[in-house]
Amino acid sequence: MTSTHAAVPSAAQPQASFHAADHLVARVAKVDAATCVGLDPVLDRLPASLRPADPSNDAACASAIEAFSVGVIDSVHESCAAVKIQAACYERYGAAGFAAMGRVLEHARASGLSVVYDAKRGDIGISAEHYANGARALGAHWTTINAYLGSDGIAPFLTGGQGAFALVRTSNPSGDALQTLPLADGRTIAEAVADLVSKLGEASVGASGFSALGAVVGATKRAEIASLRARMPRTIFLVPGYGAQGGTADDVRAAFTRGNQGALITASRSVIYPSFAGSGAAGSGDWRDAIRAAAVQFAGEIRAITGGAS
User: Cβ-count burial of 177 within 10 angstroms (0-12 exposed, 13-18 middle, 19+ buried)?
Assistant: First the structure.
């Protein structure tokens, strides 16, 4: 699929004034909704009109998920602040999938969205630098990263104003087995990582008062969100697990600070695979309009708990 949108400045040479958190805060203010739509395209859930005739053909599959992703972006960019691009959904189709992902990220940037590259990178030294430069070259404003390698696995992702969301308290149930383990000083492992993120983030606080180092904190961990917010007052929370995974507006309320600031709530399946008039899958009807309506509803739900405009 050939992109038809206007070219955007290369992220490999970011403007000196760019700051990921400031950019995101401004974007949230513009749409009055701290919402992020997760782009997790799965072939058998695409609209029937987009599904390739040969699902074993990687190029055809990559073209299909690219067309769907561009349609989603065009449907949500007026009501949502950001999109989160799940790298695995594209990379499974090899070189064709990776190339499609690059064009999707570029289209998201051109649409004015804040772009989160959900690749959960985790490495150190020159490898971390390569990963960070790769994310920047793709056009990502933010990259999700694994904080459990420590500061030298985090710092490369914060150069040139780029942002990173470090895994702190994830929404998957099996994460409890590790992240809630108590340490000798009484903190849990998740709390220790939160303290690390808060300390490292102090050096990258922008004009908005928030750091370019954010934290992934799951919506399904309602009992811990308030305490983690207290530990990370200048950290933007990327909050997955809303909607299809069971997280509700009340669950994520404590993630916010100063109205609708400090958190970015993510919904994927509940927005990109809405029910169409009597159909439970994106297989019939005007799928773009259905996604647009789902994104508007999602934004309204979050706006209702942050005191935004109706």
Answer: exposed
